Amino acid sequence: MSTLVTYFSAEGTTAKVAKEYAEKVGADLFEIVPEVPYSASDIRWVNPLARCNREQFGNKDVPVNGKIDDFGKYDTVYIGFPIWYGQAPRVVHTFCKGYDWTGKDIHIFATSGGSGIGKTAEKLQPSVAGGHIVDAKRIRTASEI
Q1: Helix, strand, or coil (residue 2)
Q2: What is the pLDDT of residue 73?
Q3: How far apart are CA 129 and CA 145, in angstroms?
Q4: For residues 116 and 110, what is the distance between their CA atoms, to the nearest angstrom?
Q5: CA-closest candidate to residue 4, choices 138, 95, 129
Q6: What CATH number is attached to the domain comprising 126?
Q7: Range of the structural domain that residue 14 is part of
Q8: pLDDT > 70: what percent of the chain?
Q9: 117 and 110 Cβ atoms separated by less than 8 Å
Q10: In angstroms, rounded to a whole number, what is the distance separating the alpha carbons of residues 95 and 127?
Q11: How far apart are the C-alpha atoms of 31 and 37, rounded to whole Å?
């Protein structure tokens, strides 16, 4: 079986960590990309009408561009993302709901300037039904995963 590092990165922070970690452990890498990319104003969370806020508060599905054809070959999956309002961005939930997580070990890593990991794993669990969330941690560098 194989290991996958998948991630969503709004500003490049999570991407840097995910790429470094995947290279370190010899894992495959997949970037979660929304069909409609986020602009700087879309992720300006201090604006109550910003796209990120509308998606989070509305629990909206955010269509993902691309698909992993051979997802079944992975037994261990790392999921990385920035924390948005105490949880994964909605695009991560949409991505996760598109796959069968049965029997997979899941490691969550989140980048955040200020938020803790909180209940991020609990909130993501329904989107990875059948999978086992091994751990969830807020990190700054790949060495912390």
Answers
A1: strand
A2: 97
A3: 23
A4: 9
A5: 95
A6: 3.40.50.360
A7: 2-144
A8: 100
A9: yes
A10: 9
A11: 12
Write out pLDDT tens, residues 136-145.
999 988 889 8
- Token digits for 101? 């997580």
Per 3-state DSSP, what percentage of the chain is helix, strand, and coil (rounded to 5)? 30, 25, 45
Query: Using CA atoms, how far apart are residues 133 and 66, in angstroms rounded to an integer?
Result: 24
How far is the C-alpha of 145 from the C-alpha of 137, rounded, in Å?
8
pLDDT at 75: 97
Residue type present at position 140: R
Three-state DSSP string of 70-91: CHHHEEEEEEEEECECCECCHH
Number of domains in the chain: 1
Angle of CA points 99, 5, 129, to nearest 5°:
30
User: What residues of the chain score a pLDDT lower than 50?
Assistant: none
Written as six digits, the tokens of 96 are: 């996760």
Six token digits for residue 107? 């490691």
pLDDT at 41 (0 to 100): 81
Tokens representing 90? Answer: 């909605």
Which residue's structure tokens are 């920035």? 82
Q: What are the CA-CA distances from residue 43 to residues 49, 61, 85, 128 (Å)?
A: 10, 16, 12, 25
